[in-house]
Amino acid sequence: MADPLVCAAAACMLAVLPPVEFDNYKGLLSITVAKSKEELRILCNNTVAQNPLGLGCAWKNKPITGSCWIIRAPDKDIIEAGYTVRLVIRHESGHCLGWPGSHPGSRVPTAADR
Ligand SMILES: [Zn+2]
Fold this sequence. Notes:
This protein is α+β, with helices and mostly antiparallel strands. The protein has one domain. It has three helices and three strands. It has helices at residues 37-44, 75-80, 85-96, and strands spanning 28-33, 56-60, 67-72. Strand 2 and strand 3 (67-72) form a beta hairpin. The radius of gyration is 13 Å and the shape is globular. The chain starts with 27 loop residues before the first strand and ends in an 18-residue tail after the last helix.
């Protein structure tokens, strides 16, 4: 895995996309844009160790059963890390469909995915 801090170019992008079967969330979705990584970690209820990139998280069945709540970092933080808002939403939407947090089967985005 490449270090995202020294690797903002597309060629270095980590495998952030979910497997195809977790890449088509069509359910109810709420998206909150956190003001900072600190706020994101509070809303996501996780630590730096649990969420080192700090770009997003997803809560299944929040705010209501059957919906999904995605919290994402500000655009600036996502772009600085070498990703796009679209990629972060697709990643987190995969978790809305039940993609495990250990990210089995993750895929490297192509230029078209960005
Ligand atoms: Zn994830």
